[in-house]
Recover the amino acids of this structure.
């Protein structure tokens, strides 16, 4: 009897613990604007997973599309670190691999449409608040043209650099646009408002890589959900022009000026990175060593003497840890993108309510992949954390024990 009563006492605690742990995982993602808080919340979520019964029922087979290439990547980075030109520097930087548990706890805890949708809607609210904060900065700075050549004056909200703000807003905007395109009518007015705020902040942020990622997202949206979405291009251009005509037009026209020093400097960074890859093709120079070795590879045409990174996630990854590691990243993005697209296509055929979540995953992975051509977003912890959530969505939905709503007649599936 004693054992039976003990089991009866414990049983209601496990669901409460699970809900608490799920909420901690959600907060871990919503607090992306405060990376230290987000990291601690993620650690608490891991602790909750370990003491709950959730681990015993994990459908690992459904998650192999994300965990297999990511596991290979982590193994290659560790081997590369042992071959580094300065192992003390590389081991210190390799500790960032612990943050990759974010994708694991998301897959374990947020199974089912209900919780994935809660997190997605929460992210839209977070993106709106971050965009409002950035627009407030724009009012304080006033003459945004001062920020064209000075990264310290560029809009960055609560983040350390302007590129992180741009990457975060781009990925959350993908979630927002997916819901709007899939015709989810609940509270659509505030989601349109959120999209407008984020697009405006992106426009005034003057980060051209994010603009290119947004353009790719809109093109994909037009391809998947109807070509009427291409009308967003002239609408966005006109709106941003009316807000800040001189500054934004100058930034847009500079995209076609190959004589700009920033273009030349970026090409010199890529040349230096290419030389590092040629000298160390298999294991790279070691995690975190690119910055230390850049002066040795720096060409005479380079402007900056010691940049933080090579302004390309793919060149940076290959230079840091070798070509096999770059292949693992591409495998991770490609396989995850294909699974998301396959889920979207199946949800559209079946008229399911989770179609927008699959679409958000497709758009987010595409935007990240395009943005990585010109920024080292793979090593940006805040941006990468949101990417992991978007990549986890297909697995979370496929393994979900609950679906929040049946196929709705109050929704128009994209076609």
């Amino acid at each position: 009897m004693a054992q039976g009563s003990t089991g009866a006492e414990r049983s209601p605690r496990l669901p409460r613990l699970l809900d608490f742990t799920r909420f901690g995982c959600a907060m871990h993602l919503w607090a992306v604007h405060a990376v230290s808080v987000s990291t601690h919340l993620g650690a608490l979520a891991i602790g909750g997973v370990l003491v709950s019964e959730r681990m015993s029922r994990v459908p690992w087979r459904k998650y192999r599309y994300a965990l297999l290439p990511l596991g290979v990547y982590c193994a290659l980075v560790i081997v590369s670190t042992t071959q580094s030109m300065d192992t003390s520097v590389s081991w210190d930087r390799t500790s960032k691999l612990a943050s990759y548990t974010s994708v694991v706890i998301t897959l374990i805890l947020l199974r089912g449409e209900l919780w994935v949708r809660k997190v997605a809607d929460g992210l839209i609210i977070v993106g709106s608040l971050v965009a409002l904060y950035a627009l407030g900065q724009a009012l304080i700075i006033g003459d945004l043209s001062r920020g064209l050549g000075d990264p310290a004056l560029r809009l960055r909200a609560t983040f350390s650099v302007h590129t992180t703000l741009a990457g975060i807003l781009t990925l959350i905007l993908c979630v927002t646009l997916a819901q709007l395109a899939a015709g989810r009518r609940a509270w659509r007015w505030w989601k349109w408002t959120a999209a407008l705020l984020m697009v405006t902040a992106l426009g005034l942020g003057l980060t051209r890589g994010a603009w290119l990622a947004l353009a790719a997202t809109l093109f994909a949206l037009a391809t998947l959900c109807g070509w009427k979405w291409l009308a967003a291009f002239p609408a966005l251009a006109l709106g941003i022009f009316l807000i800040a005509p001189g500054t934004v037009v100058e930034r847009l026209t500079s995209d076609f000026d190959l004589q700009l020093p920033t273009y030349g400097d970026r090409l010199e960074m890529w040349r230096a990175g290419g030389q590092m890859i040629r000298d160390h093709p298999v294991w790279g120079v070691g995690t975190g060593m690119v910055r230390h070795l850049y002066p040795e590879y720096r060409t005479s045409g380079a402007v900056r003497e010691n940049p933080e990174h090579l302004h390309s996630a793919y060149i940076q990854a290959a230079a840091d840890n070798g070509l096999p590691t770059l292949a693992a990243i591409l495998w991770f993005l490609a396989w995850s993108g294909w699974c998301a697209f396959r889920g979207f296509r199946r949800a559209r055929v079946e008229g399911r309510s989770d179609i927008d979540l699959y679409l958000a995953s497709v758009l987010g992975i595409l935007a990240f992949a395009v943005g990585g051509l010109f920024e080292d977003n793979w090593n940006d912890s805040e941006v990468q954390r949101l990417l992991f959530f978007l990549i986890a969505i297909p697995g979370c939905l496929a393994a979900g024990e609950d679906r929040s709503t049946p196929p709705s007649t109050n929704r128009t599936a994209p076609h």
